[in-house]
Amino acid sequence: MIRAAAAALALATLVALTPPGAESATAVVDLGGSRAYVRPDPGLTLCGISLFVRAGLDRQTGDQNGLAALVAQSILQTPVDGMPLVDAVAARGGELAVHVSPQYVRFYLEAPGPALPALATLVAGALAAPSFDAALTAARTTLTAQIAADERDPRRVGMQMLLSARYIGGAGMPPRGTPSSLAGFNPADARAFYHQWYLRGDTFVTVVGQTGVASDAASRALVAAIPPGSSGPLPTLATRDFAPLPKRLVTRRDVYVPFVVLGFAAPSLGDTDFGAALVFRTMLSQVLERDSAATQPVLLRPGGTMYTYDTAPAFMSVWLNGGRLDPTEGLSAIDEVLKRAAAQPLQAAIVTRFKERARGEWALEALSLKARTWELGNALALGLDADISSQVDGAIARVTPADLQRVAKRYFQRFDVALVLPREGSGG
Amino acid sequence: MTPKAALVAAFLFGFAAAPAAAQIPPGPTLQTASNGMQYHVAADPAQPSAAISLWYRAPGAGFETPALPGLSRVAALTVAASTPITGTSLTRLVQSVGGRIDVSAYADSVAVTIVVAPEHVDRVVRALTADYFAPVVDAAGFALARRDVAEDTVYRSYDAPDALEHALEGALFSSGPFHDGTLPDAKTMAALDVTRVQAYADRAFRPSNAVLILTGNVSPSVIEDAASRDGADPAPERPAQQVAVTPGSVIQHTANVEGTGLGWVGPSIQNEAETGALDFLSDALFAPKVGSVQRALGSLDVEVTGKFITYFDPGLFLVTISGKDAQAALPIVRRAIAQVATPMSPQVFASARIAFQYRVASDLQTPGELADTLGWYAVEGNFGSSPASTRYLQIESTLTPRFVASMGARYLTAAPAIVTLARARPQATGTP
User: Fold this and answer.
1) Contact B144 A293 (CB under 8 A)
2) Choosing among B138, B153, B365, which should be mutated to test the A contact, i.e. which has the most A CBs within 10 A?
3) Predicted confidence band at A8 (pLDDT cuts at 50, 70, 90)?
4) Residue B80 and residue B222 in one domain
5) Cβ of B390: how many Cβ atoms within 10 Å?
6) B16 in a domain, yes or no?
7) What is the value of ipTM here, to two decimals?
8) Does B324 touch chain A (CB under 8 A)?
9) Structural domain that includes position A125
10) Does residue B301 fall inside a structural domain?
């Protein structure tokens, strides 16, 4: 009954977002037990294919932190012609990557259209029969290096602390686990996880770029490599409620200056409040900006926002760079915006200004082929219409001052705080 | 001889024939408006965004002496941040529509690139060309630009490959834009004033010296307004004179990072077969993770970059080595470079070519990337052979192992310029 209600709500949202008579930009291809969602861009010589498999973080039990990533990375490291699959693809003129999200693992293959079938055959071989015995150590080494790189970004460190506090179970675990958790897994663990969760009925494919017969064939090969079966409908992610007073999480890392990260609940992509939340994101970002002669690189900005809408419920974080502004002043500015936006509707002219900017920012949300296949797949993973991203622009345009006030009240009055501080003696 | 015949001949008879570039149809050409502005539109309506890129041939350190490294960047940023008669600076306009604006300064060119939602292209092109073709320089814009450049310079000084490449360009030339560079020091920044910036902007940012590139989800009709703007002087700037030096002893600099750089002078951008060979070679050796040098480095904790930069004349081949194990990596890198004069086996060559062609295409997939590449080749003087053109790929397809090896031998087996960067040692204290 709950699932039925959720489906009805999603449908109602969809109806609200879809302009009547709009033509879909996405074609659907039947892959026999799964589907490919195809968006051509004939102006490109390359084609990107994302294979989504329901084997993400939430499949992990309490003692499986990092196993989803280790299994996926082992597939990339499976030997092919004497080298890891990922290198074999690169040597043949393509790119293979993997990304683990709270509910899905996404394999991304990119190459010129005609080269895709041969490359997909290579990838399919590893997907069908991952060589965990041969690849696990290399996969662990790769992930450990990636974790070290993630740890150097204090924004991500803070956001992950907040996500872990917000989401219950595997969905809140760090995407790549930790070096110590990865060290505890053996090939049998990986094999068991793979056989339990890599199921063809839980997959779909998104394709963008130079699409056609070749990309259809490649999509078919990728899906056919996954063992048959299905685990049923997507469950809702469980979350912890925010308390009236912010939870304060503190860590010390090898950073030069302190970072403060605030975490909020946020409407998900299919929610009727999503457009208003994007406008709110723009407002918060602007509060933390300072005048500059051009768009500043992230490292030189005083603060910013990150909207994690690949989950439902979603999450928004606001970060402040203590090296670029006084965190106390930044927090006061944020606090004032949150209170004022909730207390009364903003002036219509101000809302119009933020809406225009938010619409433009949304258009730049996914530019690379990899990002475009993700954007398309993210909507589908959340059970939404394939073209919903293109409808968000209209949803932002329809946001009213009252919508913003409602969103401010509903989502942005309670939050948690993560402090990422320099280690003792490491300067600051 | 057809390209295919040349390829067969090279394999059969073993000579390093230059690929027959002359036999390949010419690539696209730039259009020229009545005001002298050159332009090109590469529309792709399936893209979610559009890029607008305005390029100028203009030395990074100014037209006059003394050289002021960073002047082109400060000038371009000042114009973007200054308030014209419309009352809204270009930077504010782009921000207000959710777009991104970036200024890139190179030794002999400067570019302003804006990425926006398709519906704003018309408005942004109008503002961009209005602001740059009759540049307004005000004190507030200058202050912002100078602060941004100073911060960016500090930020970049901690980027080892960037710092090494900059030092190499200085080491390879005794005068000219490469020697002067684009990164200012505190003294230079203090010497900058609004008058000098205005003078630079007036000379550099003329329509007749401009190349406008539009890519992504754009309509070609957008160009009409920009093309109709007045231009007083029809003469574009000529490439500045560069004076290369014979590499001598290792040049050492104190810096915020450590590392070693190796640099060679290469062919002009006009010499398409030779630049194509060096593009290919740099990828085969240094492509991240899969280049032969990267593989030879194994598990060393080191970052090695290598690229051929297709400047007007000459091009540059720059290699940087940084990280904890840089010293251990240096002989491996030098050994690999010493081997470039030996032709690759046909199998290795074919595999490297396929991988190279992918990476060329991969670097052109967003409107911003495409605009950058087209703008670069336009301003450096060989627009028709940019990597976005069919001609570039056709020339690449005529390369042979022997020809590539002969180019390696010609340009990379000579003694390189070598620079080393080392952090300043703390001064000893407590001694008289």
Assistant:
1) yes
2) B365
3) very low
4) yes
5) 12
6) no
7) 0.91
8) no
9) 25-225
10) yes
| Domain coverage including residue B357 | 246-423
**Identity of residue A273:** D
B268 and B397 housed in the same domain: yes
Domain assignment present for A2: no
Minimal C-alpha gap between A29 and chain B (Å)? 19
State whether residue A257 sits within 8 Å of chain B by CB.
no
Residues of A in contact with B141 (CB under 8 A): 293
Instruction: Report d(CA A390, CA B268) in Å as an integer.
Output: 45
Number of domains in chain B: 2
pTM equals 0.92
What gap in Å lies between CA A193 and CA A64, rounded to an integer? Answer: 9
Task: From A194, A225, A256, give the residue that closes a domain.
Answer: A225
For residues B188 and B270, membership in a common domain is answered with no
- B119/B260 same-domain check: no
CB contact under 8 A, A357 and B361: no
Decide if B100 and A364 are in contact by the 8 Å CB cutoff: yes
Q: Tell which residue, B129, B183, A13, has the closest CA to residue B114.
A: B129
Do A256 and A383 belong to one domain?
yes
Report CB contact under 8 Å: B144, A42.
no
Q: Which residue of A has its CA nearest to B104?
A: A294
Check the CA dihedral A396-A262-A316-B102 and report its sign. Answer: positive
- HSE (side-chain half, CA atoms, 13 Å) at B334: 14
pLDDT of residue B1 exceeding 50, the answer is no
**Subunit contact B91:A293, Cβ cutoff 8 A:** yes
Q: Is the Cβ pair A300, B151 closer than 8 Å? A: yes
Testing the interface with B: which of A41, A367, A375 to mutate, by most B Cβ within 10 A? A367
Look at the alpha carbons of A220, A222, A227, A232 in this order and tell me if their dihedral is positive or negative. negative
Quick check: B95 and A357 CB within 8 A? Answer: yes
Q: Are strands B38-43 and B210-216 parallel, antiparallel or unpaired?
A: parallel
Is residue A381 one of the residues assigned to a domain?
Answer: yes
Q: Chain B: residue nearest A84 by CA?
A: B290
Q: Is the CB of B357 less than 8 angstroms away from the CB of A112?
A: yes
Question: A48 and A153 share a domain?
Answer: yes
Assess contact for B173 and B316: CB atoms under 8 A.
no
Nearest CA in chain B to A39: B46
- For residue A228, say if its preceding peptide bond is cis, omega within 30 degrees of 0: no
Residue B345: inside a domain, yes or no? yes
For residues B255 and B180, state if they share a domain.
no
pLDDT tens per residue across span B69-89:
999 999 999 999 999 999 999
- Say yes or no to pLDDT of B55 above 90: yes
CA distance B301 to chain A (A): 11
Interface of A with B in 276-305 (CB under 8 A): 282, 291-297, 299-300
Tens of pLDDT, residue by residue over A198-245, are 999 999 999 999 999 999 999 999 999 999 999 988 888 999 999 999
Q: Are residues A216 and A254 in the same domain?
A: no
Question: Is the CB of residue B100 less than 8 Å away from at least one CB of chain A?
Answer: yes
CB count within 10 Å of CB A340 equals: 12
Judged by a CB distance cut-off of 8 A, whether residue A134 touches chain B is no
What's A194's domain CATH number?
3.30.830.10
Q: CB neighbours (10 Å) of residue B105?
A: 26
CA distance B171 to chain A (A): 29
Mark whether A102 and A179 lie in a shared domain. yes
